[in-house]
Fold Peptidase family M23.
Amino acid sequence: MWGFQNNDFAKLLATSLFCVAIAVTLNASPAHALRAGSWSWPLAGAHTISRGYEAPSVFYGAGHRGIDLVAEVGQEVLAPADGVVHFVGTVVDRELISLDHGQFLSTFEPVTSTLTEGDRVTRGQVIGTVTTSNHCTCLHMGARQGKDYLSPLAMLASIPAAVLLPWD
């Protein structure tokens, strides 16, 4: 009926459907597709993630809107990309700093900083130091595009482009 006796046709159809699925996925999350790997790590040295990103099931639901990196109190925190200081202060019981990178915001807590809102920062510049918190002995890093939280790993980790290989 459809001519599936021809193995080449079946392979072409499957490959086409796969490509459409990838295109739809990339269009649904342009931040991940366009900016992957564009930020540098906010801590020098080894990077150990003690808790990963957990998206909430609803906008105000429970989740973990960032990643926790193992850090020591007093360790320097570095700007992941060029930007402008968006906020410096205390929220609830934690000191934090937020940077505006144009289309994206990055946030870091608990961090003590001498910078003030409006200061320009460059990638790799020291923006503060890790301080104590009840949350963990870590640096919590968050990322946002507008009101939407993203996994900072999408901005930090370089994911190689997918390559389709021949079936034969």
Observations:
- The domain at 49-156 is CATH 2.70.70.10 (Glucose Permease (Domain IIA)).
- The first strand starts at residue 49 and ends at 51.
- The mean pLDDT is 78.
- The radius of gyration is 20 Å.
